[in-house]
Specification:
The termini are far apart. The protein has one domain: Orthogonal Bundle (MetI-like fold), CATH 1.10.3720. Helix 4 crosses helix 8. The radius of gyration is 25 Å and the shape is globular. It is mostly helical.
Length: 288
Amino acid sequence: MRTETTALQRPARRSNPYHLFLYAVLVLVSLPFLLPILWMFLSSLKPAAAIFGSPFALGPDAGLSNFVQVFRDYPFARQYGNSLYILFIVVPVTTLLAAIAGYAFARLRFPGRDFVFVLTLAAMMIPSELTAVPQFTLFRTLGSTNSHLPVILLQIFSATGALAVFLMRQHFITLPKELEEAGRVDGLDHLGVFWHIMLPLSRPALATVAIFAVLNSWNDYFNPLIYLSDERLLTLPLALQRFTDPLGGVYWNLTLAAGVLVALPVLLAFLLAQRQFIESLAASGTKG
């Protein structure tokens, strides 16, 4: 009885007209981004002849045959594994190096620190096409062409890597110095403070850096195009252009099916880390 009385006395929640209007605007703004993804997914289920018909309608012949053919008739599984293999190396190494460098630029004092930091930021402004020829000459001299080594190194030490260092530096600047002083009192050196205190408090920033590293590695087309010629070594951005017929046409149904498979890991990575990503972007740049 008391529960019913409380429920009756509780005022009914009213929808704020401003919030409803805001949600409607957000839905309209998101449509240009969501509709192409929806079209790609629905078209990946259709045969080639039905793709350019009604964009959001599925006929009785829709199914998963395109996905089966992608793996059956092409070395797509191996190429998918190549991209995952490179990703699992690039992302943790980029994140760790960015955290170490960001902590050094934010907390340590050494000669030329600001100059070196400016040079690191300058790496984001140099087009990759400008350094492509000397880099290729270097790796060819070392005998590393047609291998994943130059692709991995160039993805780690890229403009995205410089951005990751900047984000981590901005994050470490925002952390109170009292935390570092407390660690010193407990007998920790710089490495101990970094590993046991600063790094556990940096999960949002680390998640943001990891997302940028995932995007940089997963979508890299330029470096694999230059250094990889063996079909078995190709990564997914290059694999997507292999779904062609002998006359130069494109198998759009297979390309879209492969595109859905390529997009899934990136969407999953962002969904898993979106909260930390937003928190980090909101906090970065507040000091320094």
